[in-house]
Amino acid sequence: MATAQLSVFLFVCFVAESLACSPIRGWKPPTIEEEARYAAVVLEGVITGLSSVTETWVNDTATVKVTNYYAGCGPSIVNVTGFSDPAACGVLAEMNATYFLYLCANEFGAEYRLNTFDIHTGAIPVITKQINEYDVVKAKTISVTGPGATPDVCKTQPLEHRNCSKPDNSAVSTTLSSVAAVFVLVPLLL
Length: 190
Fold this sequence. Notes:
disordered C terminus, 5 helices, globular
């Protein structure tokens, strides 16, 4: 019996690890335009601080100094939750890095959360020294949102507010459903 339980345990560990961030066959990453279209707030900023909301690496919070709002409006310093390890299909927050952030209102106390409607969504890190990469992300974002405004300007001239949304074919829900099925079936095998 102990051998069977050990075998099931090892199988579950293997399946959980292999499904950690394995998109379904045929999955295509969302475009930058989709990221902007599905977010309620879109901004560009630099991460100036990091903290963990929980004991795990799944829901890290970043303090962001906003340089521009492309959709929505807010202060020049915001807190954003939802950063996580890329192995868990997330986006890692790095100090002093510039990001385009695609956000939703947060019900957990922080001002915003990443709009993680699919694998690795909600934030795009850009290396400002690689001007071409930065320009491409900015141009594709602006093609959906418009030019936006700095925090000082948008306080007096609010930008259009939108609700967060997601496409119907999200890979995250499929991957998470597969992992959940494994954990539901395991106790039945024991």
